[in-house]
């Protein structure tokens, strides 16, 4: 009588380890392999071997449970990346699959040492976590961890970052941090407002030592300024201050920027390349659209979708040249909060934009009325003077200008042109021509 044998399963390792809280399954399998003195790759090959686990491949959760000896429920509670909607159906809500608000980070080495673990491990943490608050160590990157306790402003920035996510949501915090980091790095690359960052950097890096852009010590030094500026951008009330049309609100926004990350910042002399100036212009344009396309996750939509006929009527009223709407900005259409008899624009940016548009329209009208065309003496290309190129342009491009210069230089350097004399404002003349011209001038 033939007896059907059960399919072979993975045998339990002689030495097993308990999983850490929210540890990744790859980190746990690596620690399990190191405890039993086998390589991590060899253990993965052992799990994925179809000939060893016939007739069907074993599920990853069952494989880890068989190797470690821990039950499935315990592994699901400790290893979040093994959870699926089917497996966690009967478990409490804390054991449900994680959302995108979590990220993988290295576990603090001092926390591992307190549990008697000498190997490295990785676990899932909130995406606002940069520091181990228990031991005051920077753990955000995969480089060597370092102590930040002598700089309490970095630890305070971690608390502010957590509070930011609790008040406005992790999606808003991520977008605000990304935008604040872009502003700060652009300012620091132009050697502006980096006094506070360099003060923390001098503690981590000794004098004379170099650094690079992805250096974790540089990122830790810049963390407090970025978090402080992100708090301004994440708040719906403070974020909308430059677009209310009130000079007091705009001044308050600039004061907040100065107090948080840019001491001595001046909006008037910043220039068009400044990141704050560019953001205000882009955000003001987005807020004038019928349905704001890029609001923050916690920002309510101030505009509801309008029907097509109402939208067309509204756009025609804004674009009409003879529309006399004293209650809105003549450039962007924003409603003016402080209504005066001579107020036409909501800010200096809109005034400058309207002036540039008028200059361009005037140049188009003048060029179309005159219709003056110029021809390049080198390649023969024609253009409309004052519109496509400058009104006093002689060549169509710098290449043609350089070609003409080389041609004239070659004529001057040749031996045939030794008897030619250059005369100002008269080109090249021969000696007999110069004598005749001199006689004409005397007569």
Q: Concise description?
A:
With 443 residues, the chain is mainly alpha-helical. It folds into three domains: 7-126, no CATH class; 144-298, no CATH class; 374-442, no CATH class.
Question: What does this protein look like?
Answer:
The chain has 443 residues and is mostly helical. The chain has helices at 25-35, 40-48, 60-68, 72-78, 109-114, 152-168, 170-189, 195-204, 216-234, 236-239, 247-260, 275-287, 308-319, 348-370, 398-413, 431-442, and strands spanning 102-106, 122-126, 131-132, 137-138, 146-147, 373-375, 382-384, 421-423, 427-429. The strands form four sheets. The protein has a three-stranded antiparallel sheet. The chain has a two-stranded antiparallel sheet with strand order 1-2. Strands 6-7 form a two-stranded antiparallel sheet.
Task: Provide tags for this entry.
single chain, 443 residues, mainly alpha, 3 domains, three-stranded antiparallel beta sheet, two-stranded antiparallel ribbon
Share in helix: 40-55%
Uncertain parts: 416-429
Strand order of the largest sheet: 3-4-5
Shape field: elongated
Mean pLDDT: 81
SSE succession = HHHHEHEEEEHHHHHHHHHEEHEEH
Strand content: 5-15%
Distance between the termini: 138 Å
Q: Main beta sheet, described?
A: 3 strands, antiparallel
What is the gyration radius calculated from CA atoms?
35 Å
Q: State the secondary-structure class.
A: mainly alpha
Number of domains: 3
Number of helices: 16
């Amino acid at each position: 009588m033939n007896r059907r044998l059960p399919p072979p399963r993975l045998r339990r390792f002689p030495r097993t380890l308990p999983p850490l809280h929210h540890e990744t399954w790859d980190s746990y399998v690596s620690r399990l392999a190191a405890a039993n003195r086998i390589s991590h790759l060899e253990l993965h090959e052992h799990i994925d071997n179809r000939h060893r686990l016939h007739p069907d491949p074993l599920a990853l959760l069952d494989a880890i449970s068989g190797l470690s000896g821990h039950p499935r429920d315990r592994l699901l509670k400790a290893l979040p990346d093994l959870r699926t909607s089917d497996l966690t159906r009967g478990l409490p809500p804390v054991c449900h699959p994680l959302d995108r608000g979590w990220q993988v980070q290295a576990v603090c080495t001092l926390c591992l040492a307190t549990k008697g673990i000498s190997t490295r491990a990785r676990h899932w943490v909130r995406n606002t976590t940069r520091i181990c608050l228990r031991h005051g160590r920077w753990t955000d990157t995969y480089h060597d961890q370092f102590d930040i306790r002598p700089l309490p402003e970095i630890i305070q920035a971690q608390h502010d970052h957590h509070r930011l996510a609790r008040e406005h949501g992790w999606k808003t915090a991520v977008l605000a941090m990304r935008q604040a980091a872009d502003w700060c790095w652009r300012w620091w690359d132009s050697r502006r407002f980096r006094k506070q960052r360099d003060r923390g950097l001098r503690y981590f890096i000794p004098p004379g030592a170099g650094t690079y852009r992805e250096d974790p010590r540089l990122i830790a030094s810049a963390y407090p300024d970025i978090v402080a500026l992100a708090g301004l951008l994440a708040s719906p009330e403070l974020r909308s201050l430059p677009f209310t049309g009130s000079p007091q609100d705009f001044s308050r926004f600039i004061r907040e920027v100065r107090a948080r990350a840019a001491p001595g910042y001046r909006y008037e002399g910043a220039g068009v390349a400044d990141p704050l100036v560019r953001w205000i212009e882009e955000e003001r344009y987005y807020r004038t659209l019928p349905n704001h396309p890029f609001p923050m996750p916690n920002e309510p939509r101030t505009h509801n979708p309008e029907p097509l006929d109402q939208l067309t009527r509204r756009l025609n009223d804004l674009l009409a040249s003879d529309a006399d709407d004293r209650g809105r900005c003549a450039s962007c259409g924003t409603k003016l909060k402080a209504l005066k008899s001579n107020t036409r624009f909501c800010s200096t940016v809109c005034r400058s934009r309207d002036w540039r548009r008028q200059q361009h329209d005037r140049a188009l009208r003048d060029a179309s009325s005159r219709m003056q065309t110029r021809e390049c003496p080198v390649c023969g290309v024609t253009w409309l003077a004052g519109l496509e190129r400058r009104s006093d342009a002689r060549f169509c491009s710098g290449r043609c200008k350089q070609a003409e210069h080389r041609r004239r230089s070659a004529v001057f350097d040749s031996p045939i042109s030794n008897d030619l004399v250059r005369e100002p404002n008269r080109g090249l003349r021969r000696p007999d021509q110069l004598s005749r011209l001199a006689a004409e001038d005397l007569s």
